Amino acid sequence: MNKAILTPANVLLAVLLFVAFAQMTAVYLLMQTPWTGINAVAGTLPDTVVVESIDADSPAAGKLSVGEVLTGVQTAQGLLKLAPLLYDFPPLSPATFAQLDAFYQRQATLHRAFTDPVGVTFVTVTGENVTLTPLLYTPLSALPLTFWLLSLINLISPLVGVLVWTYRPNQQASALLLMHGLFYYLFVMGGVCVVASEFYLPPEILQQVLLLQVAGIGIAAPLMVLILCYAPSPLVRGNWLLWLTLGGSALTIVNYHYHWFESPGHMYYSQHPLIYIGASIAIILQWRRTRQQPVERAALLVLATSFMLPSTLIVAIHVIPILFGKLPLVGNTIILMLFLLIAVGLAVGILRYRLFDIEFWWLKSLLWLLGGCLVAAIDLSVTALFQLSDSYALGISVIIAGFLYFPLRQWLLGKVIPAEKQNLQDFLPAFSSSLSDAVSQDTFEQRWLESLQQRFHPLHLEPLPETITHTQLSDNGLHLQIPSLDNTRSYRLSGKQRAARLFHKTDVKNTESLLTVARMASNASEMRQQAIMEERRRIMHDLHDSLGSKLLTLTHQLPDPNHKESAKQALMTLRDTIRLSLKTTPLRLEDHLADWRAEIAERADAAGVTLHWQQTGDASIHALTPKLVLEITQLLRETVSNALKHAAPAQLSLRFQMDASTLQILVGNDGRVSDPATWKAGTGLGSIQTRIARLGGDVRFELRDKPKLHNRVVLRIPLI
């Protein structure tokens, strides 16, 4: 079919025309029935009805009174009972064609009595005969309010089908739901004709009404099973299952009308348990297919719950009693409402509306059903075992159910609800502890990411360049987008609990609370660091102005070159201490290697010593703290100073070896060499050993004979 024709407006117009035609057909059929103006309900006495109301301008006005109890009508064959009233009787309940023909025959007998030219004679419970002449046709204004309300309320089903198809026109499940809505409305129109009847329907009209019901529900019910076969993911390919189902349904409808062959058990209702079983099988297959697919699994929960809960009630209180030859436990109106709930629930599942709420919604539905079934089961057991009255049995059942239900509810909550949806207070101690040792913005950000991982166990955590102000859900709860602490970027968490669950609005609320706590801690730490840095700047400024100026003066005034060099080294150390102490971010190792080389080369050149410099490993991967840079700088100065001062070498070699976790520095010289075991521990050696121990490293003093005899100092410094 041309897609230009299947626009949402055209489809909506076609559905409204279909609904209007079905509505007018139902109105026409009801207006062809005789009318007395009596509104009757089932009486408390067996086989009686009670006059509940009488229209003022009706044939019964002034002849019968409200509250009068009727036993039946007089016919040529004698008294014909009015109970059960047609609107309170399931017209599809006859199990065999013979019972259906007898049902039609009863309606025909009532029709002859109500269309008798001399009038219809009602017999009251007191034996009084009241004769009145019904109108041959029911006025439009006399159609009961129930007819219009049910017609209007059940209009929701086809309109919901149009809505879902409009939003998902290319999805097979949405097209099936639209078809379901149309055929369901046919079923409804047949049902409301029965509900709106006074005492009976003429047999020829009743046949048309029942055909509408059989055709409507005969196709609408299997379509619900087909929806479960195609949503949330298709279990079969192509349309063969659709055509097979429609063919089987058409055969059932034609067989019901022409009485070809009887199904075992019940000629019509035998198929409904099969439909229920088919839907259950489809749900089980979908459950297996949607493993590790949280969005599809949540959509399946909506679809399955929407179908299984109302369908279970329909089968339990309507279908099973009829299959056992009993009257159903509820009237036709409640059954229509349950079918409507199924349609609305399927629409929500196909549209995937607020899937992140499904865990709680599904659990509440399960608890509600469990509570009701528990009370009912205990009530029946107490009544059967102890032969108590209904009021006593119900009271005892509620008390027993309370003692059983609430512990069972708490156990179920603990099993079903994941830990991160429980009290946030349980998570706060570990969260606060993770933030307690963070001192920089980068560390706080890293702790924030670790906490998110611990809280939600996402399948993926991806940094995003865009900024957001609040935590957001996306893709039906598959993703949770969270701001960074400094609000310069955001993070997207995908697949909660390793893709086993969807994120929920409670996760948004809890994450916002954790974000507030983390930002408060980060801001407090930042303010504290700023205060420390400000005080450090003041102290360093004072040191530079006082001690620094004096050292600078000494470098110019001291006559001894060694003393002058010591003052110069002290001044450089002071300046490095001031400069590095004011740094708050990690420093690159490769930058400081260049600085160290330039300084040592200058000192070697001033001493007339040849410098050999080597580097192995990737220095760009290492970032050092300012404190570590300062300590390494001091180690190098003292080691080089010892070599230049005490060994008087011709050549000085430095080799830097770097791997993923360690920096090794080898400082060699070819000057006055000696066995390190004979060295006396002085200020220089002691300072080197103290500094290297403070860094968690070690130092070795070696005498090497290759390529020629020389001393070597090996410094090993951990970088992690």
Automatic annotation (TrEMBL):
It comes from Thiothrix unzii. The chain crosses the membrane at residues 12-31, 145-165, 177-197, 209-228, 240-258, 270-287, 299-324, 330-353, 365-386, 392-408. The lineage of its organism: Bacteria, Pseudomonadati, Pseudomonadota, Gammaproteobacteria, Thiotrichales. It catalyses: ATP + protein L-histidine = ADP + protein N-phospho-L-histidine. Keywords: Kinase, Membrane, Transferase, Transmembrane, Transmembrane helix, Two-component regulatory system. One of its GO terms (biological process) is phosphorelay signal transduction system. Coiled coil: none annotated. This is histidine kinase. GO terms for molecular function: protein histidine kinase activity. Its EC number is 2.7.13.3. It comes from the Bacteria. It is an enzyme of class 2 (transferase).
